[in-house]
Amino acid sequence: MAVTKPDPDPAFDEPRRVGVGPHPQPWPDDSRLDPDLLANGDQRNVVDRYRYWRTEAVKADLDERRHPFHVAIENWQHDLNIGSIVRTANAFLAEEVHIVGRRRWNKRGAMVTDRYQHVRHHPDVDALIAWAAEADLEVVAIDNTPSSQPIESVELPRRVLLLFGQEGPGLTDEASAGASATYSIAQYGSTRSINASVAAGIAMHAWIRSHAESLG
Question: Is pTM beyond 0.85 here?
Fold first, then answer.
């Protein structure tokens, strides 16, 4: 039996184009623009507003309107979720991401968004809690524990540091003790916990729903 091959569909058969090509000349007179990107094209995963912008210019522009929430994650076992959390923090325009424990972290999941996101290191939980107190940030832990409150039933503080444990063991006892409250994310299936980076994304979006619109 002969098999008839379908006609090619250009929308699927052509390689997907990412970014933009070289900028037509004459180039705009704008110090924020990168001559190399103007000449060779901009293939970065950035919104159209930032096409051809220098990395430093993008970060400076984001700094003008960052949201007043922070995200922290413990890094005792080189957690692979940290990169994804940094990427999500950039998407929601968090003020800073804090790495607690090991200084080195796997940046692969960040997809180079760490270039535009402030990342700060703390050697231990005590140092993080002390820093948060000086910055007037309420520390809220996100973990699935018997004593935690459902995040769906509360409004997160406007100035808050969302604290996450690493995949598997969750938050350490020291981190839980340093938080003013612990919130969990509702689950309905058979698994005991969801991925740490997914949990971080849900918690960040909970903050966005409560506060981002009012900030403009």
Answer: yes
C-alpha distances in angstroms, 213 versus 46, 49, 90, 207, 208?
22, 20, 17, 10, 8
Q: Is 212 exposed, middle or buried (0-12, 13-18, 19+ CB in 10 A)?
A: middle
User: Residue 25's CB: how many other CB atoms inside 10 A?
Assistant: 7
95 and 117 in contact (C-beta within 8 Å)?
no
CA angle 157, 160, 165 (to 5 degrees): 120
pLDDT at residue 94, rounded to an integer: 98
Residue carrying structure tokens 């940046």: 107
pLDDT-based confidence at residue 125 (cuts at 50, 70, 90):
very high
pLDDT at 2: 55
pLDDT value of residue 79: 76
Q: At 181, is the secondary structure helix, strand, or coil?
A: strand
Residue 6, pLDDT above cutoff 80: no
Phi-psi region of 3 (alpha: psi -120 to 50; beta: other; left: phi over 0): beta
Helix (H) or strand (E) holding 61: helix 55-63
